[in-house]
Amino acid sequence: MIYVTRKEHFNAAHKLARPEWSDEKNEEVFGKCANANWHGHNFNLYVTVKGEPNELTGFVIDLKVLSKIIREKVTDQLDHKNLNVDVPFMQGIMPSTENLCIAIWKQIVEPIAAHGCYLHAIKLYETENNFAEYFGPEH
Amino acid sequence: MIYVTRKEHFNAAHKLARPEWSDEKNEEVFGKCANANWHGHNFNLYVTVKGEPNELTGFVIDLKVLSKIIREKVTDQLDHKNLNVDVPFMQGIMPSTENLCIAIWKQIVEPIAAHGCYLHAIKLYETENNFAEYFGPEH
Amino acid sequence: MIYVTRKEHFNAAHKLARPEWSDEKNEEVFGKCANANWHGHNFNLYVTVKGEPNELTGFVIDLKVLSKIIREKVTDQLDHKNLNVDVPFMQGIMPSTENLCIAIWKQIVEPIAAHGCYLHAIKLYETENNFAEYFGPEH
Amino acid sequence: MIYVTRKEHFNAAHKLARPEWSDEKNEEVFGKCANANWHGHNFNLYVTVKGEPNELTGFVIDLKVLSKIIREKVTDQLDHKNLNVDVPFMQGIMPSTENLCIAIWKQIVEPIAAHGCYLHAIKLYETENNFAEYFGPEH
Amino acid sequence: MIYVTRKEHFNAAHKLARPEWSDEKNEEVFGKCANANWHGHNFNLYVTVKGEPNELTGFVIDLKVLSKIIREKVTDQLDHKNLNVDVPFMQGIMPSTENLCIAIWKQIVEPIAAHGCYLHAIKLYETENNFAEYFGPEH
Amino acid sequence: MIYVTRKEHFNAAHKLARPEWSDEKNEEVFGKCANANWHGHNFNLYVTVKGEPNELTGFVIDLKVLSKIIREKVTDQLDHKNLNVDVPFMQGIMPSTENLCIAIWKQIVEPIAAHGCYLHAIKLYETENNFAEYFGPEH
Predict the structure, then answer these.
(1) Do D11 and E40 touch (CB under 8 A)?
(2) What interface predicted TM-score (ipTM) does this complex get?
(3) Taking the C-alpha atoms of E87, E93, E97 and E102 in order, what is their torsion angle to the nearest 10 degrees?
């Protein structure tokens, strides 16, 4: 098995707040991330795929193909968007980095499997100092 | 003269759109940056101060002091905020990276001069690929 | 399971030398790292915690809480210190990057477990080119 | 077990193209990577070794020793070279990042084992956005 | 005046050698950069433009426009190419980082001026450790 | 004129404290940087040289030559050393980043001028967040 990783990025707004909670409770739990008028980040996304290199090309997956899947299924829908409001696949989901990883996994696990290899990991940097990783529902 | 630089950062939401313009015109001019529901960035801010090193300390300015000025006058007011809505010193100003540099300069030029040295440059990264620099109204 | 990581940093002095060895032997084994008058590094520390995201917050652990644990138990005790001399939890331990990882693990494994999640990894960069990782005594 | 990693780098030319294929087919499969007159990269290589820290030195392996192995067996043979033409251990192998990882593993797995520890991973960045990892023939 | 910078990148092969010199002389002068079978780099290019921000947009230049100029005039012609062989605007020019800066300047100085602002600087990283800067023929 | 820059690095210990001052005054002025048992940093040094590219080589200065000057005159004397104690050219000088820049300038200005070009700038990062720059005694 070889693991290959492609980095993509998107810039988005979000807030962490539950609408059924008071402003005070949201600020107590989420701190400044609950700011009612939103804040935002430059997100860096690393998608790792595992498989055997093709004997003729030496590729686990053509990274142009992987990049295209990520853009169509993920970053075109997140880039310059509001993660709480604008994104169909995030409806009803608190846009924490953890939950974003799970939602991104679901968007691309099947399109990647269609190319004869396996999605291994989603790694998402919210800032240089904070990131989350998800290895799928079986891990 | 020696130049010393302190890096600080803030995460904020904004949009680039003129309220008196139609949505179509805003999207034509500003592209996806005009998204009505905002987007955001991790901004990295570099503040450069020039002066002579103090003979006893070897410092142009104590970087803890410089950091405190930047936080009080700039990043505490921008971090986890909406640059179009939440920030008193950005009222009525299009929050482009260029205009942010000028506004940040005005916030700190005098507090820095009070320490016997001079503000030389504001450098602001909006993304890893885009940044602006401002050297004051006389340059 | 989701894995979340927080980066913190500290700047410290150390030397690699055994007091019971001669200077010649220490230099032979440790090279310039044995310099009697110390040298130092900007250490970058990545702490990874695993768990299930909370249904209400979407967090495995509030990263502000994780950051506070790391600062109180680790970086406040290491930053701007001499790792051979000043640090209670490093007494009698050769301050290699490997041994630092193990000692840092011991400092925070229980405080993290008290928040309903698990310490997964300590990753410590001594320089951009050298780092160590520890996944606990059972791995 | 502790894991230690050493970063090394090399700058090389290559192309991705099969000599038995037509130019059209090579361009169809490999895109601009098939350019007949070559292109190149700054490769960043991370070699991870696992083992128990030595009781006296605190080292899994002396990183100067690890660096020397990597330079002699790998980067001295790849740096400022053409990966398709100049490198004995890449003869007959398509120089994809994946295949480079496997070939580099084979070059250093035994010299590292001779030092009482184990090669754990080869991670190779072709660009900031693309990298491959290999954990040996049994994984 | 405000200065805005856009980063772009390209991956290319080159060698540093004069055809009228012997192999021995080329290796003596250029070292391993003279390797007959080429080597290559991931080049990072920073283009800085200066001007006054537009009153309505807050932009010195729309960075999408600047990016398009750089791609059409520079990186589309250099990416995945051989700088000695494949590039019309580098014919007869030794492809040192210094000379690349001058050649890139000439390619874009007029298209940028057509947008009411001025090319200020070309900064080109050949590696993380080596870069060149050019501020035009009058500096 | 073209400007070329070479990055080198060194890891060193230091403290900021005046021996004629009390511990209390040193801590008041220098904070934790005054720790009696030292602390340390990974310093990144950028040396910029300006000149005209040689017509035959395309080089302002051969960067191997520049690297050799920096190593012999600067980093070999600073790396894995104590800046307050071990370094002849820092005797009697407070090892602030500012003063280090001036001292490094003096070490290499003449050896560089001997190669037909001019030292333009010393830029020294003490941490990712703090750096100083010096452009010589006439600026």
Answers:
(1) yes
(2) 0.97
(3) -90
Angle ∠(A37,A38,A39) on CA atoms, nearest 5: 135
User: pTM for this structure?
Assistant: 0.98
Which of A27, A33, A41, A115 is labelled catalytic?
Answer: A33
Give the pLDDT confidence of E12-34 residue by residue, as tens digits: 999 999 999 999 999 999 999 99
pLDDT digits (tens, 9 = 90+) for F4-18: 999 999 999 999 999
Q: Inter-chain contact F94–B7, Cβ cutoff 8 Å? A: no
Contacts within 8 Å (CB) and 24+ apart, E59-66 = E59/B96, E59/B98, E59/E4, E60/B98, E60/B132, E60/E2, E60/E3, E60/E4, E60/E117, E61/E4, E61/E112, E61/E115, E61/E116, E61/E117, E63/B130, E63/E4, E63/E6, E64/B31, E65/E115, E66/E4, E66/E6, E66/E112
List residues of chain D with CB under 8 Å from any CB of chain C. 1-8, 48, 53, 56-60, 63-64
pLDDT of C73 reads 98
Q: How confident is the model at residue D54 (pLDDT cuts 50, 70, 90)?
A: very high
Q: How far lies A120's CA from each of A13, D126, E31, F70, in Å?
A: 27, 20, 42, 45
> Is E126 tagged catalytic?
yes
Burial of E34 (0-12, 13-18, 19+ CB in 10 A): buried
User: What angle (nearest 5°) sits at the alpha carbon of residue C17, between those of residues C14 and C22?
Assistant: 145
Q: How far apart are CA F35 and CA F27, in angstroms?
A: 8
Domain boundaries, chain A: 2-9+43-134
Catalytic annotation, pick one of D14, D117, D120, D126: D126
Q: Which CATH entry fits the domain spanning D2-9+43-134: 3.30.479.10, 3.40.50.10170, 3.40.50.1100, 3.40.50.11010?
A: 3.30.479.10
**Average pLDDT of span F50-75:** 98
In angstroms, the CA D137 to CA C101 distance is 28
Here the contacts of D32-37 (C-beta below 8 Å, separation 24 or greater) are D32/E79, D32/E80, D33/E80, D35/E80, D35/E81, D35/E82, D35/E86, D37/E13, D37/E81, D37/E82, D37/E85, D37/E86
Rounded to whole angstroms, the maximal C-alpha distance in chain C is 60
Contact D46, D26 (CB under 8 A): no
> Closest chain F residue to E133 measured between Cα atoms?
F3
**C-alpha angle F11/C25/C33, rounded to 5°?**
10
Strand partners, B13: B40, B82
CB spacing of E59 vs B93 below 8 angstroms: no
F99/B58 Cβ within 8 A: yes
In the residue annotation, D39 being an active-site residue is answered as no
